[in-house]
Design brief:
alpha/beta; 302 residues; two-stranded parallel ribbon; globular; 36% helix; single chain
């Protein structure tokens, strides 16, 4: 695998030290820019370590914008704007402002922070990292929201040391959503055919194995959407968990303006984001060396 990744890295001009001492598990066990709880770390202290229990806690403090009516909520415009919050520290500040109860006490829906799938995944990721557990948010597409459709979605992965693998967890799927959607798989171990990381979706579309029009959300679909999620997944693997609609440069560029060189870069990103721990050096090197896949200077993270 190292030889293959090194060859692909040379094709796109990325210098990689395959003997780097950087440890992906140590890297993902520490908070990043978005997941650092800062002065609100006390809210994450003393929480259970069981992943299922942590998902219940996350579900008890967040409500998904698109599901709010299912929980009996009619949201004001001010409450809807909570979905624009990026850093976990600001999420926790708002959660505390809505209720001073411990996070272990589920709040009524009207006292939960309004977010989306990215918020569920990122908050769970932050809690796990606070406990020293390697965790990372992943951006991609889920097959379980609509028939014959790959829905824009985020989940969290954590490293299961006993099994030596990354386990996908959908912290958004509470009992109500599982019932409405008819979910029959274990949402604490999401099967790889039910959630596709954006790199896999990109490769399927590029190979003609899937219709790009099946990927997206609402009326926003197509290969350009897959491209945006691929870059956002790359960012998340570098602990920069942006919002699902954050976009600039290569993310926002019209499809007809994407060059062959840029397509080759995207092919490379798909390869290394799917390479597991073996691709960690390439994921870090590409992010550090190529401004096309980094957030721009001065980008607001409020």
């Amino acid at each position: 695998m190292d030889t293959l990744l090194a060859a692909v890295s040379r094709q796109v001009g990325v210098r990689v030290d395959l003997h780097s001492s950087d440890d992906p598990l140590a890297y993902y066990a520490r908070p990043g820019f978005m997941t650092d709880p800062q002065e609100y770390s006390d809210l994450l202290s003393g929480l259970p370590t069981d992943v299922g229990a942590l998902c219940s806690i996350v579900q008890g403090v967040l409500v998904h914008l698109f599901w709010s009516e299912r929980y009996g909520l009619t949201l004001s415009d001010d409450r809807k704007r909570e979905v624009q919050i990026r850093p976990v520290a600001r999420m926790l500040a708002r959660i505390r402002a809505l209720s001073d109860r411990p996070l272990t006490v589920a709040r009524p829906p009207e006292q939960r922070l309004v977010g989306n799938c990215r918020h569920f995944a990122t908050l769970l990721c932050a809690v796990l990292r606070q406990q020293g557990v390697p965790a990372r948010a992943r951006c991609g597409f889920a097959r379980y929201f609509e028939p014959d459709h790959y829905e824009d979605h985020w989940i969290c992965e954590y490293w299961a040391s006993t099994e030596q693998r990354w386990v996908g967890v959908d912290a958004q799927l509470d009992q109500l959503q599982r019932r409405v959607l008819g979910i029959h798989f274990d949402s604490l171990d999401v099967p790889p055919d039910q959630f596709l990381t954006a790199g896999k979706a990109w490769q399927m579309c590029r190979a003609g194995a899937a219709d790009p029009g099946q990927f997206g959300i609402l009326d926003k679909r197509g290969i350009g959407f897959v491209r945006g999620n691929l870059v956002r997944d790359m960012l998340a693997l570098n602990k920069m968990e942006v919002l699902p609609w954050d976009g600039w440069g290569l993310v926002a560029k019209p499809e007809e303006e994407v060059s062959q060189d840029e397509r080759e870069l995207l092919d490379y990103l798909a390869t290394i984001t799917l390479a597991g721990n073996e691709g960690f050096s390439q994921v870090r090197s590409a992010y550090e060396q190529d401004a096309r896949i980094r957030v721009p200077p001065g980008w607001p993270a409020r």
